[in-house]
Write a structure and sequence with these properties.
Structural class: alpha/beta
Keywords: Acyltransferase, Endoplasmic reticulum, Lipid biosynthesis, Lipid metabolism, Membrane, Transferase, Transmembrane, Transmembrane helix
Subcellular location: Endoplasmic reticulum membrane
EC number: 2.3.1.-
Family: Belongs to the diacylglycerol acyltransferase family.
Largest sheet: 7 strands, mixed
Shape: globular
Number of domains: 1
Number of strands: 11
Radius of gyration: 20 Å
Pfam family, one: DAGAT
Amino acid sequence: MKVQFAPMDVPLHRRLQTATVLQWVYSFLALAPTCILLFFYLLFTRFWLISVLYSIWWFFDYDTPAHGGRRVSFLCDLKVWEYMRDYFPIKLVKTADLNPRHNYVIGFHPHGVLVAGAFANFCTYATGFRELFPGLTTYMLMLPLWFRAPFFRDYIMCAGLIPSDKQSAIYPLRQKRGGNAVVIAVGGAPEALDAHPGTYKVMLASKKGFIKMAMEHGAHLVPVYSFGENEVFDQVENSRGTWLRWTQEHLQRIMGVSLPLFHARGIFQYSFGLMPYRKPINTVVGRPIKVEKNPKPTSEELESLHQLYMDELSNLFEEHKGNYGVDKDAHLVFV
């Protein structure tokens, strides 16, 4: 394979974009185990007191992730996230107003490999969410596993991330003042295994838990489709029924996280590596679906709202796909 190296005269702003995305990829893939190793390593050095004091802090702060976390607006507004936004670039597209007097459950589709669009749009201020939807605060759900990693848990809470278990997810929705939006990558880790360029598979057909949560708390539903999310990485062919897919799915059930074998470009060359391609991601926020509070919805009511949500997501995709280079014959596939 011939390696295509990056030119020497790459402008500084593009180098800064690459550096920012590099730290984000590292944070997503390796920062949690690094923090765990650091925590135990410090115990056997003259800096052991750091880990001991952190353990005490962790004991008293243990329930914070389940109570809305601890977003640090200053960190969400750092210039580095603008460099990440411009690397792809990532754009947030508004189609309707969201009244800040209500709470919302935002369904993000598709998951993609590393959920780049969801992070940039809902965990940072770089794409203008605060200006487009004033009065709303987003809380993005993440596997509870990551909140058990010392130091790392504090880092991800700074960006407004909270655990995806039920009690943590409903905490913002129970706030009667409104203005809270829980963001769920509905397909979750399993959907990452279908994140191939040019595919539009959405794991939604049997995903009804977030619909029930919205009904129980009277939170309006908002479908979101992120065009280009599947285009920024290539993935080793893993069709359903192959030995690789079987292995990935079994590991996912055991560990709770999926292991897509993805690749794209490198830092100083464009031929291979784990850096995403510079391809645009356009995240389109759909119209809200009004949901009346129903503490004990029947299966028929749940099914009806779930079907309405799928229809709205499909309509959102069809309405906007022509704007973002999707073939007119392409349609969403619900699995």
